C-alpha cells in the first residue's frame, strides 16, 4: 500500500521501456537491408496509463534504447514526454522534463527494472520496481510490484497509485459510463 499523502503528491509518472513496458525481449531483424526492431506491449498497461492521465497525472517515457517502436507506442498512448537516449543516460532527460513542467523530483514516480534506472530512482519521491527488477533496483525502491514488465506491471502500478489517491473507482467508472451510451461515438 502506498502512503496516501505520498500518492497524492505525485504529478509525474515516468516509465522505462525494456523490462517495464515490455518483458525486455527485443525482436531484431532486417528486411531488404532495412533494420527492424519490434517490441511487444501489454494492452492492459495501456489502459492503466490512460487512467493515470485521466486522473490528472503526466505520464512520460525515458528509455536507454532508440527505436521507432517506442515512438509509435508513445503516440498511441498520447504520451508527449518521450526521451530515447542511445547511451542510456536517463538522468539529463529526466531533469529536463522536470524543468519543462515545473515539477520537483519528490513529485515524480519512476518505474524501473535495471541499473540504467538507478540514478533516477534514487532521486524521485516514489521509486518503483517491477516484479522482474534486479535485486539492487528492488532494494532501492519504496514500492515493489508483483507483476512483471510487459505483463501488467504498469497496470498494477496505476491501480495501486490511483487507489491510494482515492480516484481509481471514479476514473474507471467514468471510462465505463462514456461507453454505456448507445448513441455516442468514441470519447476517450
Ligand atoms: Mg529497463
What key phrases describe this protein's structure?
two-stranded antiparallel ribbon, six-stranded parallel sheet, 8 strands, alpha/beta, Rossmann fold, binds magnesium ion, 8 helices, 188 residues
Notes on the structure:
By secondary structure, the chain is of the alpha/beta class. It has one domain (about 5-175): Rossmann fold (3-Layer(aba) Sandwich). The chain has helices at about 5-10, 45-55, 70-75, 90-100, 120, 135-140, 155-165, 170-175; strands spanning about 10-15, 25-30, 35-40, 60-65, 80-85, 110, 125-130, 145. A 6-stranded parallel sheet has the order 5-4-1-6-7-8. A two-stranded antiparallel ribbon has the order 2-3. The longest helix is centred in the last third of the chain and has 13 residues, at about 155-165. It is globular and about 50 Å long. The model has no long low-confidence stretch (mean pLDDT about 95). The site of magnesium ion has 6 residues, from loops. The site of magnesium ion (MG) has 6 residues, from loops.
Amino acid at each position: 500500500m502506498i502512503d496516501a499523502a505520498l500518492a497524492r503528491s505525485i504529478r509525474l509518472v515516468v516509465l522505462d521501456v525494456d523490462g517495464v513496458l515490455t518483458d525486455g525481449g527485443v525482436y531484431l531483424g532486417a528486411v531488404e537491408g532495412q533494420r527492424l526492431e519490434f517490441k511487444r506491449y501489454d494492452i492492459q498497461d495501456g489502459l492503466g496509463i490512460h487512467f493515470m492521465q485521466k486522473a490528472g497525472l503526466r505520464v512520460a517515457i525515458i528509455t536507454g534504447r532508440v527505436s521507432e517502436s517506442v515512438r509509435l507506442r508513445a503516440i498511441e498512448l498520447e504520451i508527449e514526454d518521450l526521451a530515447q537516449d542511445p547511451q542510456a543516460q536517463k538522468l539529463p532527460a529526466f531533469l529536463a522534463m522536470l524543468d519543462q513542467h515545473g515539477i520537483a523530483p519528490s513529485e515524480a514516480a519512476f518505474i524501473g527494472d535495471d541499473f540504467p534506472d538507478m540514478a533516477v530512482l534514487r532521486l524521485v519521491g516514489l521509486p518503483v520496481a517491477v516484479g522482474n527488477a534486479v535485486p539492487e533496483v528492488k532494494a532501492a525502491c519504496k514500492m515493489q510490484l508483483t507483476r512483471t514488465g510487459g505483463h501488467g506491471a504498469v497496470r498494477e502500478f496505476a491501480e495501486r497509485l490511483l487507489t491510494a489517491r482515492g480516484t481509481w473507482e471514479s476514473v474507471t467508472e467514468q471510462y465505463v459510463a462514456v461507453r454505456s451510451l448507445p448513441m455516442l461515438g468514441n470519447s476517450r
